[in-house]
Amino acid sequence: MYRRQCYTCGMVYRYQEWTDGVYNFDDHILLSLHLCLFLRNSLQTHQAVGRAIEVLERTSRKTYPSKTRILHAYLGFKALSDHDYTFACVSCGHNPVSVVMDLHKKGVFSMPVSNIEEPPQTFDGNVNIEHFGDKVSMEMISRGLVSSSKANPFLVRPNYHFWAPWIGPHTRRGSVVLNTEYQKVHSPYSAQEEVELTVTEDRLTDELVKLKMEAVRALCRQCGVDPKGSRLDLITRLQTEMKNRSSYDKVFSYIWGASGGWAVVTCPCAVVYAVKFNIRAESPRDYTDLLLSMKHFPNITLYDFARGLATYTNNREPRTFRPHDGRLLEPTISNIALASSGQIKVDLPWLALKKDIPDVNGHPVTGSAEHYALYDRFHEANTKDARDVLRRVDLIPQICGWLNSQSAEQLFAEMRRNNYFLNMMSPSSHFFLMRNILHHYNSIKNSATLQNMKKMLGVGVQIKLNSFGQTVLAETTGAQDPTNEGRDPTTAADEGQDPAFATDPHPNTATAKTPDLDLSVCGPDCWGLPHLRHLLARSAITESQVDYVLDTRRSGADIMGTVGNTTLARQDFQSLGLQEDLEASIANSCFQLICHMAWLKKKDVYAADAYVVATWHAPHFQDPFLNLPADAAEKDLLIFPVWKPGHWFLSLLMPKAFKMYQLDSADPFGFGDEQYLGVFRFNVSVIGTVPCSIWNAVWEKKSLHVPKDCCDFQKPSRSEEHSRLGCN
Q: Is residue 178 within 8 Å of 125, Cβ to Cβ?
């Protein structure tokens, strides 16, 4: 083996030439870079290094060195690789507004608790996360330089004062983070915490149900309960036996006292932001340490024991979860009753649109300083406290239905397939490899998100990350941004980096500049433009984008984008720009966006499905009320797009004002289509629970100044009166 030696001090320099595609671990084991990538991908697919090497041995019919030694060589290779471990989502940014937290109980490592070193008297719970991470990496590298672990000067042993979680550099408040696990042993709960944090028998029973049959039998034997019978019989006996305090303590110790597991903080996209490898059993203290170590406290925190988290955190740092101790409403009897019956909602508009005047110490994305502790959907029914109904996600219309409260559980479902080899490792190896696996897991998630965005936006659209680490459309005009903020986030991924940290390492806290879109696109020349060109006239849409979408030489089945649950193909968009009839899928998507825009303006608008409306007249005569919402009478506006051969018009109903209109460019001064007029008169009479005569009285003959181009998307004659154009 080639080597160099210093002629002054005699120090030996090993052969280590990366350009040759070889990693020299200890002068005896050399790994090719291809093998290192193969092992990395094996780990991402839940195959242990030992199993991957065994496959290679059987395939090549050759004997490899010790599998443990090869694992150490791989860990040394990853320690020398350039990973920043950003741990951030390209959609949610560096500082997520909503987080989901949970514990992976079975992700453990071998560690005698009795051997844990006591912290010094001056220890205040602050740990340098960068120093800890660097020392663990040095242990991985130095294994190739020493004869045994005992001789390793960089060996990291778990202790209370030098054992840190991992939080991304853009997300954490600085290099010093919190780990106050030592207080689990020395600090009893206050009286208020004792009431809120005591684990009830019902919660222990819920955890018992999750145990395997053999574990339940073993627990029965420990408690002196007959271990014979079905699973349900055994759990019932244990539940009865838990009335005895001694048996209760045994069950509690069996379920939570075996090991610490690892606690995670994820965003709703299931990207991991923080992970903490607990030395002792889980408690709300672990998650409070993580949340308080973040640069910006999330506005929405989902946890399976939200009440205990809010109580402990507010006792430790008063008014952290506020208002109402992290509940969505004041816990009055009336509010609890309304929430239980689903008759009340809590509007948080800043989740959709940042506050015009941000709160003091408000979140940089929302501008709000409100912090709520809510239950995830899976555990919200477990609590017996009536007040906890005010901690349900479905009370918030802005996130109800789309926020994935099970992202942490989904992560664990995948990561538990690694337990068989991770749990056999030393604590430092467990920390290092698990952090690396999660890093690549995040990278894959972010890359898939970016690819989906590009697929929906089409060719020619550039994506960048703003100062908050969120994906936004890049500027389409002007000089290119020379900073990292203006880079395509996939560039870093192509270079082997995580696209989540393709931003300035010192992010600017100012709001990122985004292109202003002028929606007043009508002008003197708009009559001569097909509809997509009409939208292009004064917007940020480029010519190349429109040409790509309308290209008749390409397949009409190519997916161009999605709106809600609707997937739009090229053939759908071509009805907007090639002098063809408007396709109903496009119409539905447009009205869906209109309803969303109205919702942002605090208007409740409902648009009927264009395909359904077509069945209300001859020859089908379907019942319109089969497809109308139950609260139709409470809507500000109901929109019904109506199609007749070669022509579209709109019928608008305003239930609260007892008015309806028909916007028909073919007959702008008339009463509208008589066939549908009868249908809609009947609809509104039933919706408003008033006689048809009242609606007829307010049915107004209006002069509807609506250009034909806006109704049937046909190219109008330039000789028409342009002064009648009304696009307000």
A: yes
